[in-house]
Design goal:
The structure holds two protein chains of two kinds. By secondary structure, chain A is mainly α. Chain A contains 13 helices and two strands. Chain A has one domain: Orthogonal Bundle (ABC transporter involved in vitamin B12 uptake, BtuC), CATH 1.10.3470. Chain B is globular and about 75 Å long. Classes of the chains: A mainly alpha, B mainly alpha.
Amino acid sequence: MTADQWIALVAGIVGGALRVGAPFLFVSLGECLTEKSGRINLGLEGVLVLSAMAAFGGAYLTDSAWLGVLIGAMAGAVLALLHGLLCSLDRVNDVATGIALMLLGTGLAFYLGKPLIQPQAPQIPAIPLGFWSDNTVVRSALQLNALVPIGIALAVLLWWGFARTRAGLLVRMAGDSAQATRALGYSVSGLRIAATTAGGFIAGLGGASLTLFYPGSWNEGISSGQGLIAVALVIFARWSPLRCVGAAFLFGGAGAIGPALQSIGIGWGYHLFNTVPYVLTLVILVLTCKPGSAAIGSPGELSSTRN
Amino acid sequence: MPMSLPMRSTLKEFALPVFAIAAALLLFGVLVAFAGVDPVEVWATLFKGAFGDWFSWQNTLQRAAPLMLTALCVALPARAGLIVIGGEGALVLGGLACAALAHAVPLPGNAVGTAIVCIAGALAGALWIVLAGWLRQYRGINETISSLLLAYIAIGIFKHLVEGPLRDPASLNKPSTYALNDGLLIGGIGGSDVHWGLVLGVVACLGLGWWLRATASGFSVRVVGGNPRTAQLVGLPATRLILGSCALGGACAGLAGAVEVAAVHTNANASLIAGYGYAGILVSFIARHNPVAIVPVAILFGGFGAAGSLLQRRLGLPDASVLVLQGIAFVLILASEGLRMVDWKALRARLFRASGSPA
């Protein structure tokens, strides 16, 4: 390969990691917050698609990308709130409810979003991170989604919040021991519903970045399962918001290897490269899990890490 | 009239889901009313599209067949205490194994050949779900997560092989494997569009339901799932039983993939990834992991799916509207599960006392 090809390949992967990783970042932070409170939300896939549609529709109707982002995040929060409420009922399984909400969220998004497939909506501005380079390939690859810095700040905020604030401590307590929470006079369900809803709000930002930045339009194939992958991402990041940032861009980068290779003429293994993140997560699980104990770093009440 | 206790609880068992579905239809009616469509007309069209005539029934049953098999992939491990949600992976690998074997090995073009490709599909599915069970039993990895990851890996492998090594060069727009020989295809029952896969699905549900209920090994599986401590105390081979139920469940999902290839698509292509694996999870939860109850639930939801195109053609509703209806129905039925244990008599008594007492 020539030097130009190498630069194009690296820029493609880094740029792809940033573009594809942005929705991953938000869904993983949302799922992290939810799981910290002791509940799993497989319905984030539905949240992501619904908020992607709502954000696009909101931006289209209000003519403002940022209002669209807000509307998308609100839509995500409402669907997640439903998940939180349903799971608080006795004998209601959070895994099954998540799958049902995945169906409901995508269904509602497709149903309500039918008229939005044609029009254009105002887009989130891009930060030109490639300003130092003369190479147009590099420049176009390094157009940074303005939501990404917000996401990174959010990750730091969550990390700080879990470690230092009262609210963060309460969420972690609800996730680690429901009994201790009850003994101290707090409502376990209330805390979990709040954390799930906030998680949906954050994941909704990811949906907004799908329709308002990259790929930047609404269609029914907008999500390729990023919401479900969030669950894997959080395990990969071992329930740390800071590590979620790294995990999201790693997953995004792994997903970008295939297209980047394709752009320089290597088409082999496109779909196999797309599975790299899942294989990596599985390998990490194999390395960190021991029979009879929960995964390292996982909240104690989480059903998906216990056997 | 006073009712005996078991009779009343059976009534409750049926009444709750039926009420939930009625409520879902009602909510759906409200939703379409916003779109300016008459709800009554929607309900009528829905019924007509799902169960109205023989044509609709064929469509419904064709969709119900894979749903029954993928639901079993959730139900059997669930009875052994595992929540497996990777049926989609087992289904696509089953379809792939079926198509690949038919292309690689010259098989007799009759029922024997069909049986062989179906068994190949079932084996592929079984291996995939057993892998999730094995990771749980020997490595301590939660099966819900690992089966989800394995499903994505399976879909990646499927796409890689279908678009690469196994691709029929003649399939230009839609990458597919070579089509099965006509002799291997599964035909319709009595010349209809309903293929023999439906019989396989029903037989599997009834047979496995009987197995769980009436055999020693089935009973042992239920003990392992229901009360692991007891199972340990009486010395049941828990790991073997768990892996066995995973294998049976995975075989069902793999069979579903093979049947879809042999009866519907004639080759393996991306249409196989249609979400039957995920819908099967919900069917199984609604049937409360009871294989016999899976049959009617799968037919009902197959019917909803079948009615979609009629709603679109007749009333101009988006094709996603059945997805919304299914979503609402699933959510409400799962929520009604939470009301099952409510003591209605005590609740009523308390409400009356509360409203009767002075404020």
